[in-house]
Amino acid sequence: MATIILSAASPQHPSLQALAACLVTELARTGETDIQTFDLATIKLAYCQGEFDCWVKTPGYCRSLDTEQVIVQAIHDADNLILLDAITFGGHGYTLKRAMDRMICLLAPFFEKRAALTHHRGRYDHVANLFALGWLPAPDSSQARTWREFAEANAINMLAPRFGAAVVDDTDQEAWADAIREMLASEDVPGATLDDRAPLRAALIEAASPERPEGQAVPTAAVDARTAPRVAILNGSAKVKGTSASENLARALAVRLEQGGALVEQHVATEFIHDRGKALVAARAIAEADLFVLVTPLYVDALPALATHALELVAQVRNPDFPPAQFAVIINCGFPEPEQIRTALRIARHFAVRAGYAWAGGLPLGGGGSISPERPLDEQHGPAEHVKRALDLAAPALARREPIPAEAIEEMIARPMPDGLYRLMGDLGWRYQAYRNHVSQRDLKAKPLD
Ligand SMILES: Cc1cc2nc3c(=O)[nH]c(=O)nc-3n(C[C@H](O)[C@H](O)[C@H](O)COP(=O)(O)O)c2cc1C
Fold this sequence. Notes:
Layout: E1 3-7, H1 14-29, E2 35-39, H2 53-56, H3 68-77, E3 80-86, H4 94-101, E4 107-114, E5 117-122, E6 129-136, H5 141-158, E7 163-169, H6 176-185, H7 198-208, E8 230-235, H8 245-259, E9 263-268, H9 276-287, E10 291-297, H10 305-317, E11 326-332, H11 342-355, E12 358-365, H12 385-399, H13 406-412, H14 419-436
Parallel strand pairs: 1-2, 1-3, 3-6, 6-7, 8-9, 8-10, 10-11, 11-12
Antiparallel strand pairs: 4-5
């Protein structure tokens, strides 16, 4: 057996380091002798740029040449993959998510239906089991639920034969070893109990719905309700300017918010890397707005690494003295079903709690590939119509400091075309992109790491 640990532990995080040591001890107890740990806090990794070159240009390889190449080869060769992280808003933090986002080269682009929803086909015959070991400073059952659901969704995505998840905290370190043993012994098969879409739809609506009754504005004791609300929109897509659905959605939202009397400033997630000083200025600008809207794609069932990083900084700079403010999200995903976004919405809600925002709700958009980045949303028709209607309903409410109305969420999750048709068109799209890149159709399924 070979086990790979992707670890976020570092000397700055003694609890996580202690947990990493405990994990290695417990692995040794099971007889594991072949353990390789990647300490991601000290490894410089590029972030996924979302351009899918690893599927349609250099199938099976990410174009960024760094240690991630070694990591994916090790995962490909391993029997077990363990993700060890400090739970961040219920999911992974930037350090680990950066590595995760770049694992999609282990999958093939083509769509298939598994565990009630669309997923990508596997690229390789052998896949490692997936285990997610999360640490929290204190018990938090809501974040623990998100962590476990995220682990299973990710295991379904990756086609892991079995998966396990464990959440431990500093209030009971003596329980750590047992929790790890139980996680490693798990025989759970990802998606085994997911054969019906209805519970996923219910979980989606629960996560997307605002926490306040509709029509009720955010408490404005410290805010003059007559002044125009200041809105910060953050585009969480890692794609270059002018090529993302998120940028297009953000623009369309900004226009509608301005029509509702709001003052809007737009940010992009790349502002938060490279220069720490500039990143903190941007984070503070967002933290001081009356409304913060994150418009982002879904990456690996959660927020992309770059968006996670931005949220980490905003949460860091917001303090209890800040005036009441709202947080809302628009998340689009590549599979046709908006249910794919349920875990990311829970992550967004945890962020709102952590950073002291009122959760104003989320708009989950399935089939984001139907939104062309090349033309303004308002010039698009067909599958864009329900998206425009959703924004038309959401923006005026948000501009009045009210939460997103239920009708806007209903519009956004409306299905503009049958899922099977979307999958067929998506698969043809991958083939066309390969053709344009002079990649043979056969090579789309290449297995370079075998
Ligand atoms: C690294 C990566 C991971 C992704 N993971 C998922 C996923 O788990 N589920 C899904 O439906 N789409 C997933 N997608 C697809 C994107 O959400 C989709 O392409 C989206 O429309 C991109 O939005 P953008 O143009 O705003 O960046 C992923 C894309 C990338 C690049």
